[in-house]
Specification:
The complex is a heterodimer. Chain A is an alpha/beta fold. Chain A has helices at about 10-30, 40-55, 70-85, 95-100, 115-125, 195-200, 265-275, 295-300; strands at about 30-35, 60-65, 90-95, 130-135, 150-155, 180-185, 215-220, 225, 240-245, 260. Helix content of chain A is about 30%, strand content about 15%. In chain A, strands 3-2-1-4-6-5 form a six-stranded mixed beta sheet, sandwiched between helices. The N and C termini of chain A lie far apart (about 45 Å). In chain B, about 20% of the residues lie in helices and about 35% in strands. Chain B has helices spanning about 15-25, 30-45, 60-65, 95-100, 120-130, 150-165, 200-210, 215, and strands spanning about 1-10, 70-75, 80-85, 105-115, 135-140, 175-180, 220-225, 225-230, 240-245, 250, 255-260, 265-270, 275, 280, 285-290, 300-305, 310-320, 330-335, 340-355, 360, 370-385, 395-400, 405-415. The chains are: A alpha/beta, B alpha+beta.
Chain lengths: ~300, ~425
């Protein structure tokens, strides 16, 4: 049997499309920002943004909505990336929204700040007068996201109305909005998890260490391995133990589960994903709250 | 690896969701957790089968009503290609969403129920794919298992569909495949039940379909998105023009003309990110540097010198109307052609097609939602479009309502 070349390599047309979208944002909006979560998708976007404007500096700042429940590796990486690229880093804190009495901390063993960050985000959009926020969401992640446009218009309250979405024809992007509205832009809408990893490999992008196999204290809950941290409320019968794990998706420590893995390099990670029987967001506790968890959060202004 | 974008059309009853489910399942593209979720919901709803449409109908309203309302994007891979399916609704009242979904597709799959044959909906779907100039359409005669895999039934439906294709003057290639999405016959694996069928499986055809071949051969068109001026020490006098090549090929040393100024220059270099490349083709996002510094701004177009370009201010177009508020004569809209925008005024409404009967009506008062027809318009500034038949990618535009900012229509240029 002959071996085929280019097996599962990255489709370059996806890069062309993403760069085109990013350049449209720079041209059509006055104050765009990149929503940076510290995950692989937003890291990929930083790289695409640099390419889109080279040899000029990227004209966007990075905005991080900090829940205070991050992996410390993510924060170290974020600060390094901002310094490395010369992009301005703006941070807004969920803790400040809590202190101001705008949101109330959840209680119980499933308590998370995932939902709370929407309020902090909407406040930041208003404060900074942002008209476009670029995000790393992909349509293959979740079925409500599979329906969202590349230029997704949000009303004065940041809300998504699935029934009122604009038609998006060919590659023509209509970013016209009224004052107070804003647009969420998703340049890697058409990428899959595997595309992102192949791109990270081919472009030799640096990513936070939590994506690779490491030893970590975890608890087992609902058939998933939750990272043990001061932010996680545990019950008496849940015991902490050490396991060799990695994270397939990185969000808050309270809403991202680890997978048992020995994958210590990109090639092994790619092999692991190709063989996986569980989807990427299968490790996202925030999506499991109900079948329409994502659509409901988007309606409230979540990205 | 290249990408093939496919549009699917048909109603739930034709087995469209089963076909997509089958493609995902047989190419091992559905993960266990997603499949289990669909199984448990199907059971909870009291269904006797696994409803694969639950994989794609992502909105609460769609699941409530059991229909596809908006376009869903579905992804799967084989060893040599990435596939993106735009799953579009089949009902006449969602024609708008079907056009939207199919606008980015290179090919389409039309489903016909072997028990029912060709009907009104098939005609409408083929007409839309014809309007969008798809080069190949696959007509899958589904549910062959329910007609005992009879060759005669397939042949009769094929004959009827061929007549229809001729009648609507569809210029692309049409391929007929007898399938059973439910049992997988001729979808990914060859059917053991239809030895009389000598063609290939659907997936085999898709794997071999050439992508974007035409775009590369067409006249060179480069819409300028941005002017890049770094103003730093290393690139003090650098001036680059950023954009995605719409059609054709650009190479270092090529002579070019800038629209609308008609100034000429020569391509000094082409950049893709940090890399310099000798030539770039349709679809590539690049940066062009020219020999001479000339006045070029966003919305201008760089074309191969003397290459049959047009500066249009008065022209005809076929319009598909997408808004609840009708298109009225004498109204002005914002016209966006690629990355270039200008004000446009509707000069006359010429004909409208009834989407139910496909008849052309010459007395037109206005265009309602989902209407397709012909209009004349004029623009404040020239539009650098080609005839949609010659260079499809450069022959389309959208109309934007100046008050709501919504995209209200899509147009196909005729010159």
């Amino acid at each position: 049997m002959h071996t085929k070349k280019n097996v599962n390599t990255f489709p370059r047309a996806l890069e062309d499309e993403a760069i085109y979208i990013i350049r449209e944002v720079a041209a059509q909006f006055e104050k765009p920002v990149l929503l940076f979560s510290g995950g692989k998708d937003s890291i990929t976007l930083v790289h695409l943004i640099q390419k889109a404007f080279y040899p000029a500096r990227p004209p966007f700042a990075m905005l991080h909505i900090d829940t205070g429940h991050n992996f410390k590796e993510t924060i170290i990486f974020r600060d390094w990336l901002a310094a490395h690229t010369g992009m301005q880093l703006i941070v807004r804190y969920v803790q400040q929204s809590i202190n101001a009495g705008k949101v109330t901390e959840e209680t119980g063993k499933y308590a998370s700040r995932n939902v709370l960050q929407t309020v902090t985000l909407l406040d930041a959009i208003e404060e900074l007068k942002l008209d476009a926020c670029i995000g790393g969401a992909r349509r293959d992640e979740e079925k409500a996201r599979a329906k969202e446009r590349i230029f997704s218009v949000r009303d004065n309250f940041g809300q998504w109305d699935a029934k009122k979405q604009r038609s998006e024809l060919f590659d023509i992007l209509n970013g016209k909005i009224n004052t107070g509205e804003n647009v969420r832009v998703f340049p890697i809408s058409n990428w899959t998890e595997l595309d992102v990893w192949n791109y990270i490999k081919e472009e030799a992008l640096a990513i936070p260490s939590v994506y690779f196999s490491h030893k970590r204290n975890v608890i087992e809950r609902d058939g998933m391995y939750w990272p043990h941290s001061p932010f996680l409320n545990t019950t008496k019968d849940e015991t902490v133990f050490e396991a060799t794990v990695r994270f397939r998706t990185v969000g808050d420590m309270t809403c991202t589960a680890a997978v048992l893995s020995e994958a210590a390099d990109i090639d092994t990670i790619i092999q692991e994903i190709k063989a996986a029987t569980i989807s990427e967001r299968g490790a996202r506790i925030d999506d499991k709250r109900s079948e329409a968890a994502m659509e409901k959060r988007k309606n409230e202004g979540y990205f | 690896m290249d990408i093939l974008k496919i549009a699917t059309a048909g109603s739930v009853d034709d087995g469209k969701s089963s076909l997509i489910g089958r493609l995902l399942y047989d190419t091992k593209s559905v993960t266990k957790d997603k499949l289990e979720a669909v199984e448990s919901i199907s059971k909870r709803k009291g269904l006797s089968f696994v409803d694969l449409s639950l994989l794609t109908d992502g909105l609460i309203a769609e699941r409530e009503q059991g229909i596809t309302i908006d376009v869903a994007h579905i992804y799967f891979n084989t060893e040599n290609r990435k596939y993106i399916i735009a799953d579009t609704p089949g009902h006449v009242e969602y024609t708008r969403n079907m056009i939207t979904g199919a606008s980015n597709a290179e090919t389409a799959i039309v489903l016909i129920d072997a028990r029912n044959g060709v009907w009104e909906q098939t005609r409408r779907h083929l007409s839309i794919f014809s309007l969008l100039r798809l080069t190949t359409v696959f007509i899958c005669i589904n549910k062959m298992d329910m007609v005992s895999y009879e060759e005669n039934i397939f042949t009769t439906i094929k004959k009827n569909a061929e007549d229809l294709v001729e009648k609507i003057n569809f210029k692309g290639k049409v391929v007929f495949i007898p399938i059973s999405a439910k049992y997988g016959d001729n979808v990914v694996s060859v059917s053991a039940n239809m030895e009389w069928y000598k063609g290939e499986t659907l997936l085999n055809y898709l794997e071999k379909l050439p992508v974007h071949e035409m775009d590369k051969k067409q006249p060179a068109r480069f819409p300028v998105q941005l002017v890049i001026r770094p103003h730093n020490d290393a690139y003090h006098d650098f001036r680059g023009y950023a954009g995605k090549i719409a059609s054709g090929t650009f190479a270092e040393g090529d002579e070019i003309t800038v629209l609308p100024s008609l100034k000429k220059s020569i391509i000094k270099s082409i950049h893709r990110g940090e890399k310099k490349i000798a030539a770039a083709v349709a679809g590539e996002s690049v940066l062009l540097e020219l020999e001479k510094d000339i006045d070029i701004s966003r919305g201008n177009m760089i074309v191969a010198a003397n290459n049959n370009y047009k500066l249009l201010t008065n022209f005809n177009a076929t319009i598909a109307w997408l808004d609840d508020a009708p298109l009225e004569n004498n109204k002005t809209y914002l016209l966006q052609h690629g990355v270039n925008s200008t004000t446009a005024k509707i000069v006359s409404l010429n004909t409208v097609i009834n989407m139910k009967t496909m008849e052309e009506n010459k007395t037109v008062t206005n265009f309602k939602l989902n209407d397709i027809g012909k209009i004349s318009l004029k623009t404040a500034q020239p539009v650098f479009a080609d005839d949609y038949n010659d260079v499809p990618v450069n022959g389309v535009f959208i109309l934007i309502d100046k008050f709501s900012n919504k995209t209200v229509g899509v147009g196909f240029v005729e010159v």
